Amino acid sequence: MRNFNRLVCYLNSSIQFLLQLPGVADSITAVQPAELKGEDTVVTAFVQLAQALLSTPGAQSAETLFKVSVEQKSTRLAPGLSPRRQQDATEWLIPLLAKLRRCRVLGSSVASPVQRAMQFHLVPTIECTACGFIRQQTEQSQTVNFMLGVQLLAHYQGSVTLADVLTDFTSATLVHEFVCPNPRCQNNESVERRQSISGSPRTLLIHLLRFDDQGVKNTIAVAAPLLLIHSALSNVQYRLVAALQHHGDTADSGHYTTVRVDADGSAVLIDDANERSPVDWNAEQTREAIYVLAYERV
Ligand SMILES: [Zn+2]
After folding, report:
1. Predicted pLDDT of residue 112
2. Please, what is the end-to-end C-alpha distance for the chain in angstroms?
3. What pLDDT is recorded for position 206?
4. Are residues 190 and 133 in contact, defined by beta-carbon separation less than 8 angstroms?
5. How far is the CA of 179 from the centre of ligand 1 (A)?
6. Distance 198 CA to ligand 1 centre (A)
7. pLDDT beneath 50: ranges in the chain
8. DSSP class of residue 231?
9. Counting beta carbons within 10 angstroms of the beta carbon of residue 108, is it exposed (0 to 12), middle (13 to 18) or buried (19 or more)?
């Protein structure tokens, strides 16, 4: 696979990361140039760049594509995105996934790696511990998600396991000053809120929310297993396939790389134009750098 040295690394690594996900590279390779006519400009730029990376026959040269597509069009994905300046890769990945889901060439097909494989619902529930009142959001009003954003809580010290992060994500927390909707109760310190993950996506993307509002990074080491089984994920077995890493202290500085994890558990680092292997998945520096994880349902 070819690489772009001239793309800023949050774009380069994000594209490399997406191409490691099950079905994505194949469906992109299958897109014919004519199919892109009239397609969304950002989707077109992404598909063309990815095809060039994958050396799809007939793909335009990377240099041309960089100039004509991503440089101009990535800024249309979200305000403030820049193809030249380092920034939070997920600010690009999340709106891109939303666009890929809706696009004709990938998103609307039955085999779509985004529409069918990545989506899940978050189901919020409130429950009053005083009277037992319970309310779960209806299916119609649940939001469709493509990336599970999980908080790294302040009380985590030094290191944490992904299993603990997922447990906390789905655990009930007290909603202060929230009045119980039961008219005979109306207690305002007894309502808890929790959320569950509904659906077991074939490809599960987990976003470790490392950056605060100012873009300052929480560098806590997160131990992510190669095989993940967790009650929050209906005890479905997941295998790690890729990780997007951020090395540095703030969202707009540092460096992004991608790790590909093969079926035998060996990890390969994709660092701009270089593929280096192996990566020690359990090393402290790897655990501090992992930012977005991709798991495949086994
Ligand atoms: Zn109540």
Report:
1. 62
2. 26
3. 97
4. no
5. 8
6. 26
7. 1-3, 5, 109-111
8. G
9. exposed
The pLDDT score that the predictor gives to residue 26 is: 85
Q: How far is the CA of 234 from the centre of ligand 1 (A)?
A: 28
Tell me how far the alpha carbon of residue 184 lies from the centroid of ligand 1, in angstroms.
8
pTM over 0.90? The answer is: no
Instruction: For residue 126, report the distance from its CA to the centre of ligand 1, in Å.
Output: 10
**Three-state SS letters, 203-229:** EEEEEEECECCCCEECCCEEECCCEEC
pLDDT tens across 99-148, in order? 787 776 665 544 466 666 788 888 899 999 999 999 987 766 667 788 99
Tokens 């944490």 -> residue: 160
Q: What are phi and psi of 91, to 5 degrees?
A: -65, -20
State the distance from the centre of ligand 1 to the C-alpha of 192, rounded, in angstroms.
10
Q: Ligand 1 centroid to 59 CA: how many Å?
A: 61
CA atoms of 19 and 259, how far apart (whole Å): 11
Q: At what angle do helices 90-102 and 9-19 cross, to 10 degrees?
A: 50
Q: Which residues pair with 203 in a beta bridge?
A: 296
174 CA from centroid of ligand 1 (Å): 13
Domain regions of the chain by residue span? 1-118
Contacts of 55 by beta carbon, 8 Å cutoff, 6+ apart: 1, 2
Residues 6+ apart with CB under 8 A from 152: 160, 165, 208, 209, 210, 218, 220, 222
